Amino acid sequence: NVHVVWQDNRNGPVQIFWAQRKKDIEAWVSSGQYGQDTVIMQQKDFNDPYIEGAVQFKNPKLSYTHPRIWMVSESLKESENISSIYISSFNVEQKYWQSMGVPVFNSNGEFIADGTSILVTSPDRFCTNPSITINGTNGEIAIVWEDQTEPISQIWGASFNSSGTEITSSTKITSRINNCFNPVIGFSANQAAIVFESDNNLYMSHYD
Predict the structure, then answer these.
(1) What are the angstrom distances between the C-alpha of 137 and each of 50, 98, 126?
(2) Reported confidence tier of residue 44, pLDDT bands at 50, 70, 90
(3) For residue 45, what pLDDT is reported?
(4) Whole-angstrom Cα distance, residue 76 to residue 123?
(5) What is the bridge-based pairing of β-strands 2-8 and 154-160?
(6) Which end of the chain has fewer beta carbons closer than 10 Å to its terminal beta carbon, N or C?
């Protein structure tokens, strides 16, 4: 199957939507063909202190290691000028999302709770434009993003194991005198390459 995610403001606040193209029916399960697009990241409750205030969910990216598709995205609290990075996952065998605002049901189809995502960054920073990759050998998940909290933006990163348990907490990767932005990360064997822009040039760092 093919999976796609995108940000969308059709319901007012910007949410993350998901659709898939299923091989068995050779068609998209989406509003354009069969079924509907599915919201997979949204504000749960305006009264919930976990995400108090208007939240916009943006810039989703996907990566896969069986049995989960992992998604990284950002949540922008415009009123507080704070932006955080989250990861969520879709279990391809059990066919459910573990993500903020997605309802969780038991085996009888009864609602249990709203799902949650994993907060990657400190909640008092302004983090944006994430990128994600997964080590095809051991399933390690590596994430990078721009941190624009200070006057000069830098690239930060973190890593998790295949079940979503943190390996390396948020870590500053660059320390340049000019802004660093648009990071992209990818694994080659057990080493990840991080490419980013600064001074109208491309630079590369490594994560082992």
Answers:
(1) 35, 23, 32
(2) low
(3) 55
(4) 11
(5) unpaired
(6) C
